[in-house]
Write a structure and sequence with these properties.
By secondary structure, this protein is α/β, with parallel strands linked by helices. Helices cover 29% and strands 23% of the residues. Helix 3 crosses helix 4 and helix 4 crosses helix 6.
């Protein structure tokens, strides 16, 4: 693909001298080598303050979806803090998209050295975003990695594990490995956005009519209870719809008809739960505590 149109979605917070939208626009415009290989359009999703998880990932996904038809691929710059956690959530929100979405960690450091390293990494990332690839992937050390099988190395960067997680690599051009999947027409939204979720509040006695609007097509459900969530609610929610069960003292997942404590769930399932938790629900102390609790568990599972 000659001179592709690439969306550059910046969500790494104020660092490397990039502190506001004009600073980002000027930096991309002055990056002559970048403009030679692609038409790069910057989007400042979170630049003046650090990305808040998981709601910030929802904003990235929204901007990506809005620009999807106008770009050939995307590069997402994220802070190295909780990087794999953020990539997992983004992957679960977008679903199996048919264009490359290349996620790059921005390491904190001196403005001069940091920007030089970021420019080099970004050149490779933009090249990958315009290639015949699809799906959410990670770029690190000239390698394109599958987030499902990637961990963080001792230097704080995602690392390549031979035979398990490499999609491709840059070596006199972009080379593909067996995990590479070619482009398709699949757009984001196989997991619809927050406004399509169901929010249900229950008491000690469950009213079945409260669940009457849920079908097998419902992408997710949030059940809030003023006391412990009755186990019987699981019988009213189709197995195809993941659910987040919130009470003032606990939070659990309902996946494929099974109630799961977050401690027992693998990283991707926890990320999927946060897809559900992004709904614009009423303020809930349980939801806030769940965010902190599950983030810690996700980091433990994925090795960050």
């Amino acid at each position: 693909m000659e001179h592709p149109s690439i969306g550059l979605f910046y969500a790494a917070g104020p660092q490397q001298g990039l502190v506001d939208t004009p600073a980002l626009d000027a930096w991309v415009l002055d990056f002559v080598e970048l403009q030679l290989i692609a038409q790069v359009q910057p989007f400042a999703v979170e630049i003046e303050e650090r990305l808040r998880l998981p709601s910030g990932i929802g904003r990235i996904a929204y901007r990506l979806a809005r620009e999807w038809k106008h770009i050939d691929g995307a590069v997402v710059l994220l802070s190295s803090d909780h990087f794999l956690y953020a990539v997992h959530v983004l992957r679960m929100v977008l679903g199996p998209v048919g264009k490359p979405v290349v996620c790059i960690p921005v390491l904190e450091g001196g403005q001069v050295d940091g920007k030089i390293a970021l420019r080099s990494t970004l050149l490779n990332g933009v090249q990958a975003a315009g290639a015949n690839l699809s799906g959410v992937m990670i770029h690190s050390r000239s390698e394109l990695l599958d987030p499902r099988h990637t961990s963080i190395g001792v230097d704080g960067l995602p690392e390549y594990t031979p035979g398990t997680n490499r999609i491709g690599y840059v070596d006199f051009g972009l080379q593909f490995d067996s995990l590479a999947v070619h482009r398709s027409d699949q757009g984001p939204g196989s997991r619809p956005f927050a406004e399509e979720l169901e929010l249900i509040q229950v008491g000690e006695v469950v009213n079945p009519l409260a669940f009457s609007g849920i079908t097998t097509e419902t992408p997710g459900v949030i059940v809030e209870s003023f006391g412990e969530v009755p186990v019987s609610v699981s019988s009213y929610i189709p197995e195809q719809s993941p659910a987040l069960l919130l009470s003032p003292s606990s939070a659990h997942l309902l996946v494929r008809g099974r109630i799961i404590d977050p401690i027992d769930a693998p990283a991707e399932m926890l990320a999927a739960a946060f897809t559900v938790a992004m709904a614009p629900v009423m303020p809930s102390e349980a939801l806030v505590s769940l965010e902190d609790r599950v983030r810690d568990v996700v980091i433990e599972y994925i090795g960050e």
